[in-house]
Design brief:
Blueprint lengths: L2 E4 L4 E6 L2 E7 L5 E8 L53 E4 L9 E9 L15 E9 L4 E10 L2 E12 L5 E14 L3 E7 L7 E6 L3 E6 L9 E9 L9 E6 L5 E7 L4 E8 L6 E3 L4 E3 L3 E6 L2 H16 L13 E3 L1 H4 L5 H10 L7 E4 L29 H9 L3 E6 L3 E2 L4 H5 L19 E2 L5 H17 L4 E4 L21 H19 L4 E4 L9 H6 L2 E3 L6 H11 L8 E6 L12 H8 L3 E5 L7 H23 L1 E6 L6 E7 L5 E8 L9 E3 L9 E6 L4 E6 H7 L1 E3 L1 H7 L5 E9 L2
Parallel strand pairs: 21-22, 21-30, 22-23, 23-26, 26-27, 27-28, 28-29, 29-30
Antiparallel strand pairs: 1-2, 2-3, 3-4, 5-10, 6-7, 7-8, 8-9, 9-19, 9-20, 10-17, 10-18, 11-12, 11-14, 13-16, 14-15, 15-20, 16-17, 24-25, 31-32, 32-33, 33-38, 34-37, 35-36, 35-38
Helix pairs in contact: 3-4, 6-7, 9-10, 10-11
The structure holds alpha-D-galactopyranose (GLA).
The site of alpha-D-galactopyranose (GLA) has 11 residues, from loops.
């Protein structure tokens, strides 16, 4: 039992791994938050409410003259609604047919469910004991159901909401966030991830002033400008120490997350579906469900919070079929040949890496319809006779003969205006009749809120998958939604478009992922433009960035790992000078950095030397040796290139018997200061053998010595071998006693 209800004090205690989440039904029948943090006992916490500090200038409860400390504007809310004295950011607002926007929701009943009820039509965390709390509007028959789920193997609380219209009329939902939470204190930092093509997931830490800080996405894609996640930190929280409370939304389209510091010394966190340009018509008898938000807490700093998210997503979100399974190690055609993926170009590329251990060849863009460049053909999912006169069979056979599986690229949600699909169905693109649309990357977005469009996509993709021996799909999504308008929706429902788009996307994923259970799917969105937990639910890994420069990757992978496990982050070794930055880095470094995720290669392998082909073989073998750590281990971010000339990440097996440390020195500085790396997460009482093969280093040290004294980066040896920038240094640790 992880959820307890004390009937006498009307208090709920939700207990996950090492955490307590406590709230109660207060004297005015409203659910009020008491505590979320490190596990405590089941003490009576109502003493913390301090309602008496309310003054007569505060709003009162309905029917009362003075606040007397009781007001929706003073309560620490689990849920907050507009119109009845709540003047902070509310998590819900609606419009009745009369024009009234007033709600007054109070506790009605609750259930503790041993099995988490399924969230229909949307991905969510699997399993976990769940509390369903039902609130009733005093003035109407509207109901709100708040769901809370806790887990014994991760310090997270999953939260979502359902709105049920038990009135006799249609109402409009103007705002329906997934959660609201009032945290004690007005002196926090907020950690967010800024996102842009080529430099995804850049962490930013901001001290919160009084007022509201908001990140959002209006693009219809979860991660084009910000990751759908943030973390509230104490001022002195670091990577290793201090309180960190993270929020991550399981949602793939326009979202909002807000942190509001109020004048009463609390910080409100709330968010979910972006209510900018949102209005949902909820007919009588219908229920509207929000996406799920995952709240993680750790007192072991940002790193501790990351490890909780990693465990939660590996144990309860990613498809269990793949979570511990070695991932395909791919050679992808994109940076190798771009829009020239002919068998004549690709077969030698496959041949060059035959026998290296690379086990999957992925045919990227350009194999279908009139897609000889990005101007035409998108949407026409038929094999191009120009490029593949005999169909895909010859290239698939060729890959098979080289011992590789075959993967293929699709961008199913899009259409080029110059395509047979668009010529046949111009109304299938999201656009407003009579309005010139914005044609980003020369393409439009298909209106997958429509069942006929979804059926077309599922059938077109399925046909290719049925008719060819395909084991892997890379699913791309290369532009934002604009001119938001569906020709199939009635006028009053046009502002439902983005949410309906997400539901349409999930429906397509559901049908294809379940329809082809042997196929491994990878997500992608012009790099990492839609890197979110909902995509991760369907596709166990996501391409993190089109920027394959290993130095940039140290930053992108660092930021991405704050909320997502390494196994989710797809990383490729590419050619140098790098196509995005023109930078040249050692081949070993490129592979060592790509190995800190779901690794692969993406380069013209006919253009590298036979020594480098030999290196590929060694690199793949090394990866296979460490892959279980990437899939299941605990990540410790030791240094990062935002703050240091060094990058260092360490992965430790759950039983602490093995660890892998990758260190990169960014710039070589002659006669540099001595450098040590301070590993973490080891068993301090155990003895480890520490090996660095390249520099013939082998020593036996206790976990305590390794973590406290540190490991020396042997700069002399590093530079004697070959001085230069961006050199990596690998330590392998094995517990021997
Ligand atoms: C996007 C992806 C790339 C590649 C191209 C193909 O940019 O991020 O990896 O697939 O599309 O057009």
């Amino acid at each position: 039992m992880a959820i307890f209800y004390n009937e006498e004090t009307k208090t709920f205690y939700l207990e996950g791994k090492g955490i307590s989440y406590v709230f109660g039904i207060n004297e005015t029948n409203f659910p009020e938050h008491y505590y979320f943090g490190t596990r405590i006992g089941r003490d009576e916490l109502r003493y913390t409410t301090e309602h008496n500090i309310g003054d007569s200038a505060d709003t009162a409860l309905p029917g009362q003259i003075h606040a007397g400390g009781k007001s929706y504007n003073l309560y620490r809310s689990e849920f907050s609604f507009y119109g009845n004295g709540e003047l902070r950011e509310c998590s819900f607002s609606m419009l009745f047919g009369s024009g009234s926007r007033i709600n007054d929701f109070n506790y009605e009943t609750h259930e503790i469910l041993p099995e988490k009820p399924a969230l229909s039509g949307m991905p969510s965390m699997r399993g976990g004991e769940t509390l369903k709390l039902t609130l009733k509007d005093k003035n109407s028959e509207m109901r709100v159901h708040l769901f809370y789920t806790v887990y014994d193997d991760a310090a997270v609380v999953a939260r979502r909401m359902e709105v049920e219209n038990r009135t006799a009329e249609s109402v409009k939902i103007l705002r329906a966030y997934s959660f609201a939470l009032d945290v004690y204190g007005n002196d926090h930092d907020l950690l967010t991830l800024e996102n842009a093509w080529g430099r995804e997931n850049r962490p930013e830490r901001t001290h919160l002033p009084h007022g509201t800080l908001m990140i959002d996405e209006k693009s219809g894609s979860s991660t084009r400008h910000h990751a759908p996640a943030f973390a509230l930190l104490d001022r002195d929280t670091t990577e290793e120490r201090g309180n960190a409370l993270g929020v991550s939304l399981i949602y793939s389209t326009s979202f909002v997350l807000k942190a509001q510091v109020s004048t009463k010394g609390y910080t409100r966190l709330t968010g979910g579906i972006n209510d900018f340009d949102f209005c949902w018509v909820l007919d009588a008898g219908e229920t509207f469900a929000t996406p799920e938000a995952v709240l993680a807490f750790s007192d072991e700093g940002i790193g501790g919070m990351s490890r909780e998210f990693h465990d939660a997503y590996r144990n309860h979100l990613i498809n269990p079929r793949y979570v511990k399974k070695p991932r395909p190690i791919v050679i992808n055609s994109w940076e190798a040949v771009y829009f020239d993926p002919s068998p004549a170009r690709l077969m030698p590329i496959i041949d060059a890496v035959k026998g290296t251990g690379i086990d999957t060849f992925v045919l990227d863009d350009g194999w279908f319809g009139a897609r000889r460049n990005d101007r035409a053909g998108l949407g026409d999912w038929v094999v191009s006779k120009d490029v593949y006169p005999e169909g895909l069979a010859p290239i698939i056979d060729h890959a098979h003969k080289a011992g590789m599986k075959f993967g293929i690229w699709f961008e199913p949600e899009m259409v080029n205006p110059d395509s047979d699909l668009f010529r046949a169905h111009p109304d299938w693109a999201i656009s407003v009749p009579g309005v010139e649309p914005c044609v980003a990357r020369r393409q439009l977005v298909l209106d997958i809120t429509r069942a006929d469009v979804r059926d077309y996509i599922v059938e077109a993709v399925s046909k290719i998958l049925r008719e060819n021996e395909i084991d892997y799909v890379k699913w791309d999504f290369n532009r934002a939604l604009t001119e938001n308008f569906s020709r199939a929706l009635p006028a009053e429902r046009e502002q439902e478009l983005h949410h309906r788009y997400a539901l349409g996307f999930y429906d397509i994923c559901e049908r294809l992922v379940n329809g082809f259970p042997h196929i491994f799917f990878e997500g992608c969105a012009g790099g990492g433009g839609r890197f979110d937990p909902a995509v991760l639910y369907y596709f166990p890994q996501i391409w993190a960035s089109d920027d394959t420069d290993a130095y940039m990757r140290t930053q992108i992978q660092h930021g991405t790992s704050i909320f997502y496990p390494l196994s989710a982050i797809s990383c490729h070794t590419s050619i140098c000078p790098n196509h995005q930055t023109n930078r040249t880095l050692p081949f070993k470094t490129r592979a060592d950095i790509a190995h800190l995720g779901a690794t692969g290669y993406e380069l013209d392998t006919t253009k590298i030397t036979s020594e480098e082909i030999g290196e590929v073989k060694t690199q793949v073998a090394d990866y296979k040796e460490m892959q279980d750590l990437v899939l299941e281990g605990d990540l410790y971010r030791l240094e990062n290139t935002f703050e240091s000339n060094y990058f260092a990440q360490m992965i430790v097996s759950k039983d602490k018997s093995r660890a892998h440390i990758t260190v990169m020195r960014a710039l070589c500085r002659p006669n540099d200061e001595h450098k040590r790396i301070f590993p973490r997460g080891l068993d301090k009482n155990a003895i480890y053998e520490v090996v660095n093969e390249e520099y013939e280093l082998k020593m036996r040290l206790s976990g305590a010595a390794i973590m406290n004294v540190g490991l020396v980066i042997n700069l002399k040896t590093l530079d004697q071998k070959m001085p230069g920038d961006f050199k990596t240094f690998i330590f392998k640790l094995v517990k021997i006693a």
